[in-house]
Amino acid sequence: MSDDSATILRGVRIVHDAPDFVVVEKPSGVLSVPGIGPEKADCVVSRIHALLGRIGRVEPGLAPGQLIVHRLDMDTSGLMVVALTREAQRELSGQFEARIPEKRYIALVAGIVEREEGRIDLPMRLDVENRPYQIVDHVQGRPASTYFRVLAREVDRTRIEFRPVTGRTHQLRVHARYGLGTPILGDPLYGDAPAERLMLHAAYLSFLVPGGVTRLEYHSPPPF
Questions:
Q1: Fewer CB within 10 Å of terminal CB in the chain, N or C?
Q2: In terms of DSSP H, where are the helices of the chain?
Q3: What is the DSSP string of 176-190?
Q4: pTM for the structure as a whole
Q5: Residues that are catalytic
Q6: Mean pLDDT over all residues of the chain?
Q7: CB distance 161 to 204 below 8 Å
């Protein structure tokens, strides 16, 4: 990658470059998609659009927001796929809606989790009076399911692999806090266990090549 490209991407690393999509590693602290207002325009998809759009890799007429397939929380790092054409965006978004992709996250949670593995089923919804906070609501909440597996117990914290079935906003953060009974380290919304960042990383992503049946797999080791 040239120095100019690195300047445009500013920490977003391209893991795989295909004709109609790219897989990237998002650093913690960067928005995945544009937010509301010009001050929140900088994000992963806008940086990819700026770099690849100027060399004709993005289908003409597509705005940064039209490259979106899925997203990660701003403070979560790890793997994302970004479309470069309308057809790829439609195909990949359809896969995520149908829950065809597989995602695995690595997290560090406060304290020691005694259970080795299991499934968390806690329905969730937005707390409309305290945005963007999500709450567990067994009456009005949308179904949310996550498989978990303990990878290691590290003195006063536990390393967990999360495999979400659904993709609700803040799902893993809420399920760690209320399903496991302990927050992810560095989570300012659902816990008070300090860390230099949110200790949550999208470490594995698998999906079908757009328009095909070949399953692609990508790995990203957590930076913690």
A1: N
A2: 3-9, 44-53, 86-97, 171-174
A3: IIIISSSPBTT-TTT
A4: 0.96
A5: 73
A6: 96
A7: no
